[in-house]
Write a structure and sequence with these properties.
There is one protein chain. By secondary structure, the protein is α/β, with parallel strands linked by helices. The chain contains nine helices and 14 strands. The strands form three sheets. The protein has a six-stranded parallel sheet with strand order 4-3-5-6-7-13, with helices on both faces. The chain has a six-stranded mixed sheet with strand order 9-8-10-11-12-14, sandwiched between helices. Strand 8, helix 6 and strand 9 form a beta-alpha-beta unit. Helix 2 runs parallel beside helix 9. The longest helix is centred in the last third of the chain and has 18 residues. The protein is globular and about 90 Å long.
Length: 326
């Protein structure tokens, strides 16, 4: 390649020194008669561009949500950009870049942080087309579509209680003040009060870092089952539920039987098919689709109304929950 550039006079090559761009070179790329890129009519209308910003699309829940958003925008009428924010700093950067470019509107799955950014405040003041997805930000009155996390937490506890379970553990890789976790716990504790279940019978385990798939939590799990007599486990993430099942399997703790597992979203494992697990279906595709429809209506109809959509969860009962075997 360098020899070809040298033959065309674009670069000069010197032994023991290297290759350098010729000072007198003014290179113009050749234009082929049948070029793939054809010049377009300057009067042609540009397609509006929208962005979907989401923390991660590595799991089926997030991917289904993104597909729901995309379903609201015809491919031949919109250009849709998908961004992974991963942390608050990247989210703020992406919002700023969207404001600086020709992004017409945004569906945002916001990072969980105590204060909203200057970019979000600016969007609100400028009436920029923005729809929040899966969580809302207090004190920032904008359209959002979320799941009813309180009802979801309540459904989990009611189901386990109906099967005879009396002692429970709620496990999450996040912390209790995270948006979704907070409201799920509210649903669990309020339902426990209605069912006369003492709060001391519900163990909360935060920052349960299961992603490395190690057995470092085996002692804790054995203690919960053998000493604390926990039989009903509720996990805030599907991956955490799959991890618990695999560890209980290796520890010879039967599921169901000795313990029951309920998960938010549908888990998958190498040992069991997805239809094995009792889980909360949050209708994530529907949430994404509804957020996309609100944004599209805002763009096309200039609908300035603020919409708050709360999607009811569904408990799908399968084989990972059952009555206690005495």
């Amino acid at each position: 390649a360098l020899n070809e550039l040298k033959n065309e006079g674009i670069v000069e090559r010197f032994p023991n020194k290297g290759t350098f761009v010729s000072e007198s070179t003014a290179f113009t790329a050749p234009i082929e008669e049948n070029s793939f890129y054809e010049q377009t009519d300057t009067t042609e209308t540009l397609l509006p561009e929208i962005a979907c910003i989401i923390p991660s699309i590595q799991d089926l829940f997030s991917l289904s949500m993104v597909n729901g958003v995309l379903s609201a925008f015809p491919e031949n009428e919109y250009i849709c950009h998908i961004f992974q924010s991963r942390n608050p700093q990247i989210e703020n950067y992406l919002l700023k870049r969207c404001l600086e470019t020709n992004i017409t509107g945004i569906v945002l799955f916001p990072q969980d942080q105590p204060f909203f950014s200057n970019e979000l405040l600016f969007m609100k003041l400028q009436k920029y087309p923005l729809v929040l997805l899966d969580r809302y930000l207090p004190r920032l009155d904008t359209s959002y579509v979320i799941a009813d996390n309180r009802s979801a937490g309540s459904l989990c506890l009611q189901h386990l209680h109906q099967l005879g379970h009396q002692r429970f553990a709620f496990l999450t890789s996040s912390e209790r003040h995270t948006f979704s976790i907070k409201y799920r716990l509210d649903g669990i504790y309020s339902t426990a009060e209605q069912l006369n279940i003492p709060e001391s019978s519900i163990y909360l385990i935060e920052h349960f870092m299961y992603m490395d798939k190690s057995n470092k939590y085996d002692d804790l799990l054995v203690k919960l089952v053998k000493e604390e007599k926990i039989t009903g486990f509720i996990t805030a993430e599907s991956g955490l539920c799959a991890y618990l099942y695999e560890r209980f399997h290796d520890l010879k703790i039967s599921v169901p039987g000795t313990v029951s597992l309920v998960s938010f979203d549908k888990p998958t494992t190498d040992q069991k098919c997805s239809d094995f697990f009792t889980h909360i279906n949050q209708s994530e595709y529907l949430m994404g689709q509804e957020a996309g429809k609100i944004l599209r209506n805002r763009i096309e109809q200039n609908d300035m109304n603020i919409y708050h959509r709360i999607v009811a969860p569904k408990l799908e009962v399968h084989h990972s929950t059952g009555s206690i075997v005495l």
